[in-house]
Amino acid sequence: MIPVITAFERSPDRGRGLARDMRVRWALEEVGQPYEVRLLSFPEMKQPAHLALHPFGQIPTWEEGDLVLFESGAIVLHVAQHHPGLLPDDPDARARAIMWMFAALGTVEPPIVDLSMTRLFERKEPRYARRVHAVETRTRQRLTELSARLGSAALLDGAFSGGDLLMVTVLLRLEGTGLLEEHPRIDAYVARGRERPAFRRAFDAQHAVFLDSLHAGGPPPAD
Ligand code: GTB
């Protein structure tokens, strides 16, 4: 059965691969599972038909027969549990890979999302500079800790796993901020993720949606 995922019809990131369908696409490409994509406008995401799939009216979702999932991490875990390639067979290594998936989404992603939201929506606030500084400090702290754990290793825990996949997608959101470059080991780690053929296929697929949206009615909203 071919799963169907949802994605932005016009992503605010203008095809930079920062929306959360990217991590699901990448996971599917890593395991070689074909998929279909249903593109949604912002108003469609808040309609009852989509809210029946996703209580918060967001993307991505996953439909596979009777199974409906939301939350990109849960979807990537589902893909990883049903196909070889994203979770090791060894039970301890598998538990650690899942641990890194949670670490990416629960510990590393929050300050990074906070930083991009602050930059996007609080620029005109009186305490903007102070707020950005505070969130950048928290983000730097996480990057320092992550870099220390990564050390000179190529990946988080041996072979490439769903933990690396989610961690790289989370860190990608820092591109253009200069923060990744402050941590050469993390910068190189992200670059290794980006170089994976499956990443490239996923990136190109979501970027093609952006290019189509340009042809179909003007540029999407700027980020
Ligand atoms: N925790 C959920 C998950 O991991 O699936 C979060 C899902 C989520 O935030 N989805 C966003 C969404 O649907 C799209 S990805 N937002 C619409 C809404 O909430 O109404 C978040 C995103 C959007 C834009 C950029 N960007 O422009 O760079 C980056 C990330």
Summarize the helices and strands and which ones pair or pack:
Elements: E1 4-8, H1 21-31, E2 36-40, H2 42-45, H3 48-51, E3 61-64, E4 67-70, H4 72-82, H5 91-121, H6 128-150, H7 162-172, H8 184-194, H9 197-215
Parallel strand pairs: 1-2
Antiparallel strand pairs: 1-3, 3-4
Helix pairs in contact: 1-4, 1-7, 1-9, 5-6, 5-7, 7-8
Oligomer status: single chain
Bound small molecules, by name, code or SMILES, are: S-(P-nitrobenzyl)glutathione
Query: How many structural domains can be distinguished in the coordinates?
Result: 2
Number of strands: 4
Task: Work out the helicity level.
Answer: 55-70%
CATH architecture of the largest domain: Up-down Bundle
Counted by DSSP, the helix tally is: 9
H and E string: EHEHHEEHHHHHH
What order do the strands of the largest sheet run in, or round the barrel if closed? 2-1-3-4
Write down the CATH class of the largest domain: Mainly Alpha
Pairing-aware structural class of the strands and helices? alpha+beta
Main sheet attributes: strand count, strand direction, barrel closure: 4 strands, mixed
* Overall mean pLDDT: 96
Round the Cα radius of gyration to an integer and report it: 18 Å
Q: What is the general shape?
A: globular
Low-confidence stretches: none
N- and C-termini, Cα separation:
35 Å
Describe the structure.
The chain is of the alpha+beta class. It folds into two domains: 4-85 and 198-215, 3-Layer(aba) Sandwich (Glutaredoxin); 91-196, Glutathione S-transferase Yfyf (Class Pi), Chain A, domain 2. It is 56% helix and 8% strand. The longest helix is centred in the middle third of the chain and has 31 residues, at 91-121. The radius of gyration is 18 Å and the shape is globular. The chain starts with a strand and ends in an 8-residue tail after the last helix. The model has no long low-confidence stretch (mean pLDDT 96). Residues 12-13, 18-20, 45, 57-60, 71-73, 223 line the site of S-(P-nitrobenzyl)glutathione.
